[in-house]
Amino acid sequence: MADQALAAAAAAGLSRDQVHWILRRLHSISGIVPIGFFLFFHIFENSFVVRGGADLWWKETEFTRTIPYQVFVEAGLLWIPILYHALYGLVITATSAPNAGTYNYPRNYQYTLQRVTGIVAFAFIVFHVFSTRGYFYATGVEATYQRMHYFMINPVILTVYLVGTLSCVYHLTNGIFTFSITWGIAQGPRAQRLVNYVCTAIFVVLAVVSVEILISFRVPA
Questions:
Q1: Under a CB-based contact definition with an 8 Å cutoff, are residues 28 and 92 in contact?
Q2: Per-residue pLDDT for 16 more than 70?
């Protein structure tokens, strides 16, 4: 994908550095819009209704299952942006040298963890999509509350969901921090520290809510 983009850009008269600059900016913003917005929505939608049990959860999430041309909407708004973000993220990971062990600074550890959680999050998203939406498109069986309950009472799958969900949450919240720097929103050490504190607080809130959702699914319908 990256090689094809470079070839097309070269034909358009853009240098390799200019192409990478554009791809990095697209990678950065795709992590916020639409992926980040959807993750916020997905977490809080479930948090408000899952504690009400199977009937309330099914009723309140109905509109997400009845969107016209659903497969095309999902592909355009989620699957394609996620695939691009993940693949170019792997390019960044493969071409960057981790320096957390050389330079003992918190941001270096954050950067390394960002790369690691990106890989874990992508693997989890693939598993989650194929076991829910993919399973529905293949069999016509929806991901019901009961199905999620069976997932969560399985200790192996519950562990996968805990690790995967927390990786997604960290990758998003730390990504908001790096996004603010990349796009010049947080300029200067003081502003960047403040944004980092805010993103850490958001991570804690989303992590707690996410774990609560997964545990709530363990309650029988």
A1: no
A2: yes
